[in-house]
Structure formats: structure tokens, C-alpha cells
């Protein structure tokens, strides 16, 4: 369990660095990176509470909105 905790701490640190680097453009400027971090956490089967903690509220909301949006939306069918 300690190893998994270290993974979450490391991912949280990466997210914080990304957030700092992106500044006001967080999370859109680092969307790809956030999606990769999300995929890692999901692959390791962490629950949504841990994932939200690691990605932060804004990052988690961005990722869940992004992943639940349809790939193609018809404008004028």
C-alpha cells in the first residue's frame, strides 16, 4: 500500500507542477498530460476520491467533462 501511496503523491506533485507552469491557462494547456495522469490512476484502479485528490478539483472536473463529451456532435443534422 505504501508504494501506491507514493504513486498518488508523485502524480499530485506532477499535477501541481503542471498547474504552476500553465498558470491561468490551466487546465486547457496541459489537457493531454492530465488525461495521461488520469489514465494511470484508472489503470491502477484507484477510486474517484483518490483520483480527484491527485488531479485536484479543477483538473478532475476538466478530465471528467472531457471524457464524457461525445466525439462528434451534429450541428445541423
Number of extended strands: 0
User: Per the principal axes of the C-alpha atoms, what is the gross shape?
Assistant: globular
Global Rg = 14 Å
Number of helices: 3
Report, as a whole number of angstroms, the end-to-end distance: 51 Å
Low-confidence stretches: none
* Strand and helix order: HHH
The biggest beta sheet, please?
none
Structural domains: how many? 1
Mean pLDDT rating: 90
What proportion of the residues is helical, as a percent range? over 70%
Provide a concise account of the structure shown.
The chain is mostly helical. It contains three helices and no strands.
Which key features would you list for this structure?
71% helix, single chain, globular, mainly alpha
Describe this structure in words.
Helix content is 71%, strand content 0%. It has one domain. It has three helices and no strands. The termini are far apart. It has helices at residues 2-22, 31-43, 48-68. The mean pLDDT is 90. The longest helix is centred in the first third of the chain and has 21 residues, at 2-22. The chain has 77 residues and is mainly α.
